[in-house]
Amino acid sequence: MTDRPPIRFRGRSFLAMVLAPVPPIDQWLAELDALKQRAPAFFSVRAIILDVTGLRFERSDLAQLCEELNRRSITILGIEGIGPTSLGPGFPPPLVGGKPVEDIAPPEPGAATPEAPAAQASAPALVAPPAPSRPRSFVLDAPVRSGQVIQHLDGDVTVLGSVASGAEVIAGGSIHVYGALRGRAIAGAVGDPGARILARKFEPELIAIDGLYKTADDLGGARWGQAVQARLEGDAIILVPFD
User: Whole-model pTM?
Assistant: First the structure.
């Protein structure tokens, strides 16, 4: 009989995206369909939590909503905002104690080619190590390849190369790209309206700042291919040249 190592339990942190339905649910689902049409691969590669806090849902209503989301290939990993006794077999588990980090809903752009699952598997996410005592910048001196995810929620992210189409950079602060930005850039992901996105060559699939986002279709072509700074002005993302 061979010796086997003991069972080990490890903690691991993931950045989950929260879907919070807004009545009327039919209209909300229609808006979700429009979003998926523009971003077909977005929900398939993210952990999704369903938040029904404040909604007067019967068990049958919740079951129907979960079924509608499943039909749209949106897999719910847990449900927040409902008592555990309200759920049962066939439902995702109830969740409590989540730490809010503002809205991080950055949809995939319709102009991008959806990433294949194989590409996602072959290019694992790169997560910057957490800051030991204070927020700091994370500098990556290599390009970000398609399918890769750079995530650093404790400060700015600086990419000295380019961000390829199908790649994603998520920062708690600002994002600086010294090459071409062709993928997705999500700045201020933990609630920082002062965050900015700067790129030497601006050709993104999507940008988001403090939960507000714009896809390639929304951005238009006025600043396309230029050196651009994106920042918030009120509740709008504006683009200005920085050369």
Answer: 0.52
